[in-house]
Recover the amino acids of this structure.
């Protein structure tokens, strides 16, 4: 991990950009974080385009810092300035065409778009986690927050260092990921926008039902993809405070 820039925000949060191989990312740490007082970590998932998502990610990170957590985000494969995948671009175009046509989205399209992304992104998140936990000011435990929800599901299955996850059900989910969800046992807080125009509500409900966790909460709110009420974020913050501190 190579830090390329740093700045102190007005609330004392230290924001540092980094690269890990070809992967760009951002780390936010609360002012109190140090080698003598290491803090837990939240990995912040997002749909890609780190520069575009940065304002919202920074807001999330600053809220997490107030609760005593470090937060980190990385660029997804094929997003931002990272090399594009011809297969992913075609699958995305096919999905958008199906949504515009108003018909059901074929499972084969969802698989072509989501599964290669999960296969690439999850090992990158694990490598990032290795590097972050090597920093003296970060000590765990670790949570995962946000989307792409299929990435969060796979991470929850294969990464034992993740103790809890707050997942945003805002993307199409392959049926194979729903089957993987049966292996998830960590505490879960799942956010669902009931009228999300870019999401299959029934698939999201099927995914929630499949999770094997003894503690799982579904926070469903009326409204579209970008209409998440602010108090939904407060509920997720309380969830992490219970399970990471």
């Amino acid at each position: 991990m190579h830090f390329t820039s740093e700045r102190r925000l007005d609330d004392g949060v230290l924001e540092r950009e980094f690269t890990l191989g070809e992967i760009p990312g951002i780390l936010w740490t609360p002012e109190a974080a140090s080698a003598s007082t290491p803090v837990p970590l939240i990995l912040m998932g997002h749909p890609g385009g780190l520069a575009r998502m940065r304002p919202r990610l920074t807001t999330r990170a600053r809220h997490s810092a107030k609760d005593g957590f470090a937060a980190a985000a990385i660029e997804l494969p094929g997003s931002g300035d990272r090399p594009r995948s011809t297969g992913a671009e075609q699958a995305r175009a096919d999905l958008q065409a199906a949504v515009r046509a108003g018909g059901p989205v074929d499972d084969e399209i969802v698989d072509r778009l989501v599964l290669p992304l999960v296969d690439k992104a999850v090992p990158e998140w694990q490598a990032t986690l290795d590097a972050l936990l090597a920093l003296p000011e970060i000590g765990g435990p670790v949570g995962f927050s946000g989307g792409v929800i299929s990435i969060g599901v796979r991470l929850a299955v294969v990464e034992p260092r993740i103790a809890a996850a707050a997942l945003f059900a805002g993307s199409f989910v392959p049926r194979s990921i729903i089957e993987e969800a049966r292996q998830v046992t960590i505490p879960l807080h799942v956010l669902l926008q009931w009228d999300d125009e870019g999401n299959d509500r029934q698939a999201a409900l099927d995914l929630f039902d499949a999770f094997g966790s003894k503690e799982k909460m579904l926070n469903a709110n009326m409204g579209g993809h970008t209409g998440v009420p602010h108090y939904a974020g407060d509920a997720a913050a309380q969830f992490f405070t219970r399970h990471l501190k």
